[in-house]
UniProtKB/TrEMBL annotation:
The keyword Mitochondrion belongs to this UniProt entry's keyword annotation: no
Domain Enoyl reductase (ER): 14-324
UniProt-listed SUPFAM superfamilies: GroES-like, NAD(P)-binding Rossmann-fold domains
CDD domains for this protein: quinone_oxidoreductase_like_1 (cd08243)
Name used for this protein in its record: Zinc-binding dehydrogenase
GO molecular function: NADPH binding; oxidoreductase activity, acting on NAD(P)H
Source organism of this protein record: Antrihabitans stalagmiti
Length: 328
């Protein structure tokens, strides 16, 4: 192992060009930490928020990246074995300490999840945060059940597509939205039952498909569409606020009786690595390996293309996950 690594550094908020690929010392893992040789990492909207200066509690310069997959390079506390395949995410990665946009990252052992898979690293890199958010939204945020209907607002995002895949595995009726008619086929291919072109007001159309409104709704756009998503949901149905693709996540002068339709319940989900068990991660990867599930990867970049990758993420043109590999 050399003493230096390539890492993507953000000195201060700015455009994609603010992300600079530099040589940094390989971090040292202390007891309670795990040093991971990063093979791939997914791109996430929270990293875009950090780059744009919208994230709280971030100090600069910073290596971004709230997730990564790779192999254990060192585990001083003995929690993991050198060479073991692992995923790491959340817990301050890329915000309060350096994250996954690098060839090596040192993270708390509590943020690390082991797995075994023969899938390629680009596919594996798409999974951790995406699966954790989708699975957590369905189970914790929505308490989704077999036979229920679900509306996914922001359906062509990586979390939206993964949620659709998991919901179909659960036996749910899935409605997903997209603003772009060219992305309809991408949603149909993963099993979405009804694709709705989102012009901002879809509640009437949803209720025409599901009488009385959907049982569950996952809000991934943010507060601009949340009132309409609530109106698309039945009495005693649940809306889970998980995403903010619009970069808007607060409601001014919130008055619950006026804002919430009668009898519709609003929850929220923002999870951590502890919400994704090794069993759930391994089960999903095994299902993908057996051809029983898919990973919605839209495009793969190398770490040298990080500026192009971030610009593409910001454009909103992806239908699925954007992944970066550390291969030269």
């Amino acid at each position: 192992m050399t003493d230096t690594m390539r890492a993507v550094v953000l000195d201060a908020p700015g455009p994609p060009e603010a992300l600079q690929l530099r040589a940094l010392p390989i971090p040292k893992a202390r007891p309670g930490q795990v040093l991971i040789q990063v093979k791939a990492f997914g791109l996430n909207r929270s990293e875009l928020h950090t780059r744009l200066g919208l994230a709280d509690g971030v100090t600069f310069p910073r290596v971004l990246g709230i997730e990564a997959v790779g192999v254990v390079a060192a585990s001083p506390g003995g929690e993991f074995t050198v060479g073991q395949q692992v995923a790491a995410m959340m817990g301050g990665m890329g915000r309060t300490y350096d994250g996954g946009y690098a060839e090596y990252t040192s993270v708390p052992a509590a943020q690390v999840i082991p797995f075994e898979s023969g899938l390629d690293w680009a596919t594996l890199g798409a999974v951790p945060e995406m699966l954790q958010t989708s699975n957590g939204s369905l189970t914790i945020g929505l308490d989704a059940q077999t036979g229920q209907s679900i509306l996914i607002r922001g359906g062509t995002s990586s979390v939206g597509m993964t949620t659709a895949i998991l919901a179909k595995q659960l036996g749910m009726k899935v409605l997903s939205t997209t603003r772009n008619p060219n992305k309809v086929d991408a949603l149909k291919r993963i099993g979405v039952d009804h694709v709705i072109i989102d012009h901002g007001d879809i509640a009437t159309e949803v209720r025409a498909i599901v009488d009385g409104g959907v049982d569950k709704a996952l809000e991934l756009i943010g507060t601009p569409t949340l009132p309409d998503t609530l109106r698309a949901t039945r009495v005693h149905g649940v809306v889970c606020f998980t995403g903010m693709l619009s970069n808007e996540w607060t409601v001014d002068e919130f008055y619950p009786i006026d804002y919430l339709p009668r009898g519709v319940r609003l929850s929220a989900y923002g999870g951590d690595a502890s919400d994704l068990s090794a069993e759930v991660l391994q089960g999903f990867l095994d299902a993908v390996g057996a051809g029983k599930a898919t990973v919605p990867v839209h495009r793969v970049f190398t770490i040298d293309q990080i500026q192009e990758a971030h610009a593409y993420m910001e454009s909103g043109n992806a239908a699925g996950k954007l992944v970066v590999t550390t291969a030269e």
